[in-house]
C-alpha cells in the first residue's frame, strides 16, 4: 500500500477551473504524480468551526459557495463517494490525541475542496471526507491536528490541505489575472519557500511575527492554516518540498508543498 505525503495546494480564485494557467496545469497532473489513494481527507480553508469537525457524509455533494463569476462555473458538478469509514478513523485518532471534536453528517464540499479534487482526480471515484479548521487557534494547533492524523498516510490515505499561500482579498481585483505579483507578495512567498526548504519549522510556526508582510498577505489566517495541518501530518521527522510556484491575479500565490519524512 502506498504511503502518500501530506500535500498543501493553493486553490486561489473560484474561477481556477476556467482560466488557463500554470497552476491549473499543475493540479491536473498532480493526481497522476501522487498516484491514486484509497481515500482522501480534505482540510479546506473554507470550512471553519469552533472545534475540529469531521464530515460523515456517505453521499458527497458540492456547494458553489461564491458569486459574481462566469455562469459556466456554476454548472460544474463533482460527486465523489463519501468516506464514512475514514471519518470514523479520523475521530478515533483525534480522540487518542486528546482533541474534542464534532461530526457533521451532511457536509457539502466547498470550492476549496472540490476544485482541487476535480482537477486532480476528475473521475470522482475516490472516497472523500473533510475536516474543518479553527482560525482562532493558530498555527501550532493545526500542526498538532495534522500530527494526530499522520498515521493515515501509511494506510493509503491522501491528506490534502487546501488554502492559498497569499490571500489578501482587499487587493484582489486591483490586478488582472496575469499580472506580475507586487514585491510585498513575492517577499512573503519567497520567505515561506525558503523556511520550508530549510525545514525551519519553528520559524514557519511563527510566520506572523517573522515573515515579511505577513499580515498584509494574510489579513486573516484561515487560508494559510491548512498548510500547518499538512506540516503536522508529515510526521515527527517531516521534511518539506515545494511542488509548484506561480501567481494569479497578482496577489494570489498558487504555491504547493508536500510534507513527508
Q: What can be said about this structure in brief?
A:
With 261 residues, the chain is α/β, with parallel strands linked by helices. The protein is built from 9 helices and 10 strands.
> What is the residue-averaged pLDDT?
97
CATH class: Alpha Beta
CATH architecture: 3-Layer(aba) Sandwich
**Strand residues, percent:** 15-25%
Largest sheet: 6 strands, mixed
Question: Mind sketching the topology for me?
Answer:
Layout: E1 6-10, H1 22-34, E2 39-48, E3 53-55, H2 84-96, E4 102-104, H3 111-120, E5 128-133, H4 138-149, E6 157-163, H5 183-197, H6 201-205, H7 207-210, H8 214-217, H9 225-233, E7 239-244, E8 247-248, E9 252-253, E10 256-260
Keywords:
6-stranded mixed sheet, 19% strand, two-stranded parallel ribbon, 261 residues, alpha/beta, single chain, Protocatechuate 4,5-dioxygenase, Chain B
Mind explaining what this structure looks like?
- With 261 residues, the protein is of the alpha/beta class.
- The protein has a single domain, classed as Protocatechuate 4,5-dioxygenase, Chain B (3-Layer(aba) Sandwich).
- The chain contains nine helices and ten strands.
- Helix 2 links the parallel strand 3 (53-55) and strand 4 (102-104).
- Helix 4 (138-149) runs parallel beside helix 9.
- The protein is globular.
- The model has no long low-confidence stretch (mean pLDDT 97).
Amino acid at each position: 500500500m502506498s504511503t502518500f505525503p501530506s500535500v498543501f495546494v493553493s486553490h486561489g480564485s473560484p474561477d481556477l477551473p476556467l482560466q488557463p494557467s500554470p497552476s491549473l496545469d499543475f493540479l491536473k497532473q498532480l493526481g497522476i504524480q501522487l498516484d491514486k489513494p484509497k481515500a482522501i481527507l480534505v482540510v479546506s480553508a473554507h470550512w471553519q468551526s469552533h472545534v475540529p469537525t469531521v464530515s460523515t457524509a456517505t453521499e458527497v455533494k458540492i456547494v458553489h459557495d461564491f458569486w459574481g463569476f462566469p455562469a459556466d462555473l456554476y454548472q460544474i458538478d463533482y460527486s465523489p463517494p463519501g468516506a464514512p469509514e475514514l471519518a470514523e478513523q479520523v475521530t478515533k485518532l483525534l480522540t487518542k490525541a486528546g482533541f474534542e471534536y464534532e461530526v457533521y453528517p451532511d457536509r457539502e464540499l466547498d470550492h476549496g475542496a472540490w476544485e482541487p479534487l476535480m482537477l486532480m482526480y476528475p473521475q470522482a471515484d475516490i472516497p472523500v471526507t473533510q475536516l474543518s479548521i479553527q482560525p482562532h487557534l493558530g498555527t501550532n494547533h493545526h500542526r498538532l491536528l495534522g500530527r494526530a492524523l499522520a498515521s493515515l498516510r501509511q494506510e493509503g490515505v491522501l491528506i490534502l490541505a487546501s488554502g492559498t499561500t497569499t490571500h489578501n482579498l482587499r487587493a484582489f481585483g486591483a490586478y488582472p489575472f496575469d499580472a506580475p505579483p507586487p514585491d510585498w507578495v513575492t517577499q512573503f512567498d519567497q520567505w515561506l519557500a525558503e523556511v520550508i526548504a530549510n525545514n525551519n519549522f519553528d520559524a514557519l510556526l511563527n510566520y506572523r511575527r517573522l515573515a515579511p508582510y505577513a499580515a498584509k498577505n494574510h489579513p486573516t489566517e484561515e487560508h494559510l492554516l491548512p498548510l500547518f495541518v499538512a506540516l503536522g501530518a508529515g510526521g515527527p521527522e517531516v521534511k518539506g518540498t515545494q511542488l509548484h510556484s506561480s501567481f494569479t491575479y497578482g496577489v494570489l500565490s498558487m504555491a504547493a508543498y508536500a510534507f513527508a519524512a
